[in-house]
Structure formats: structure tokens, C-alpha cells
Amino acid sequence: MTMRSYPKRILWICTLMVLMGGFFIPVPGAEELKPIVLAWEPWEPYQYLNDRGELTGLGVDMLNAILLNMKAPYKWQETPWKRVLKDLEEGFLDAGLGASKTPEREQWAYFSDPYRTESVVLFVKKGSSANYAFQNLRDIIGADFKLGVARGYYYGETYDELATNVEFQKNIEEVKVNENLYKMLIKDRIDGFLADPVSGTAGLKTLGFFTQVEIHPMQVYSDNIHIMFSKKRVTPEYVRKFNQSLAEIKVNGVYNIILNKYLR
């Protein structure tokens, strides 16, 4: 049976099975597109291993649905985010999910249409927000406040500008992974950390720290999130087909099913 004659009803059923079960189902016609390797890093609820050891999450389910709809072969590869960026730039990896679009990255990567939005907020100890009258990140300069960040993550244009400020750097504590930030805040080794509110809340709940932490009212950053494709390995035509598939799952309802599964 060719790709063009494959019943749409079966594709819909397969997509729902992927969403509910967290596994990939090959579809006839997949051989017509080049297989790609998708990098992921543990970041609940966007991508993580569930209790059965299955890769799942909002981003994973979204990609499974888009690529299944494209009839495109792929495989997942766990890779630290900083290495993802390096491998995409050098052409050792096809794609990474959960990426913000920046001028620097656009030099070596294509970006899909946005598949979700993301914001960055400041997490602090419960009841301490009133102690820090910050209106923006610049207000942290010179304050008795140690700010935790994870290496390689994008926190918006303002943070990037301040990152070169020597005085601002004195307030920064950089770590390899977000989980370290959660533990450091509880142990009072930092006064706050920057993170996506959804993933940060999920991580804090997993470690049992959520009730000890709150989100500061300061606005940090908000933007669209994309899939990032290496220009050395993926063609513009592939990205066009990916965007078309993303648009199709928004129309047929699968997109909203995925969002509601994780964000309600």
C-alpha cells in the first residue's frame, strides 16, 4: 500500500496510539524521506522518561505526531543541550527540540514554525519575593542576590546583553543542569534561579520542593519555541514539509489533544 493510498483514519488512530502509549509506529511511505536523528535532554514535562522507561512529554508527543503525519522516519538520541547546539552547528546531528530562535543560531540552523510558547521566570524561596523589589534583570546588579542559571540555555535578549556585564556576572551562579538549581535554592546556596515556569514547576514537584518555592512577579522573557534543524544535514524542503505537517495536526485536532494532555 503506497503512502498516498494509506487511509487517513488509520493515520489518526496511529497518532492517538503514539500519544497515549509513548511509542513510535512505522508508517508505509516513510522510506521516501531521509531518516533524521532528534536530540532530547531530560526536561519534564516536555521530554522525559516515564515510570515505564518510555520517552514521552509534550515536545516528544508533538514531534511523534508531526513526523508520523509526514510519514518521516526518525529516532531519538539523548544528548546534553550544550552538546546539541555544538553538534547541530558542526553537522553531527539533524535536529533538536525546544529551541528559541536567535540571530546567532540562524547562521547554522533552520527553524520550524513555532509549536509552542515559552517564558522564563524567576523562582525564589517561598515568602521571599517581597524582599527583592526587582522590576527587571538589571535591578539584580549590585544587589545581595545570587542568581542561578543553567549553562547553554537561552533566557532572552536582556539576559544575553547583561551576561557581558562584569558587575552582573558577580551575581551569577552557573550550573550544568536545571536540577542542580532546584537543590541549590533549597540549600540557600543561591537566592533564585531562572527557568521555564512549566518545566521548573514539574522539576520541583518531582524532587518534593514545590511547596517551598514561589515565582517572583518580575517579568523576564517570553517567546515562541521551535524545532532547530542543522543546515548541514537537513534541507529547506524538509523543513517546509515539517511546517506543513505541523499546520495539519493543528487543523485535525491532534495538536490540542497533546497540549491539553500536559498543560491542563
Structure description:
The protein is an alpha/beta fold. The protein folds into 2 domains: 8-116 and 223-263, D-Maltodextrin-Binding Protein, domain 2; 118-222, Periplasmic binding protein-like II (D-Maltodextrin-Binding Protein, domain 2, 3-Layer(aba) Sandwich), CATH 3.40.190. Helix content is 37%, strand content 22%. The chain contains 10 helices and 12 strands. The protein has helices at 8-21, 58-70, 81-90, 103-106, 157-162, 166-169, 178-186, 197-207, 236-251, 254-263; strands at residues 36-40, 48-49, 55-56, 74-78, 95-99, 109-111, 116-125, 147-150, 172-175, 192-195, 213-215, 221-230. The strands form 2 sheets. Strands 1, 4, 5, 6, 7, 8, 9, 10, 11 and 12 form a 10-stranded mixed beta sheet that branches. A hairpin with a 5-residue loop joins strand 2 and strand 3 (55-56). Helix 2 (58-70) crosses helix 9. The longest helix has 16 residues, at 236-251. The relative contact order is 0.18.
What does the secondary structure layout of this molecule look like, with pairings?
Layout lengths: L7 H14 L14 E5 L7 E2 L5 E2 L1 H13 L3 E5 L2 H10 L4 E5 L3 H4 L2 E3 L4 E10 L21 E4 L6 H6 L3 H4 L2 E4 L2 H9 L5 E4 L1 H11 L5 E3 L5 E10 L5 H16 L2 H10 L1
Parallel strand pairs: 1-4, 1-5, 8-9, 8-10
Antiparallel strand pairs: 2-3, 5-12, 6-12, 7-10, 7-11, 7-12
Helix pairs in contact: 1-2, 2-9, 2-10
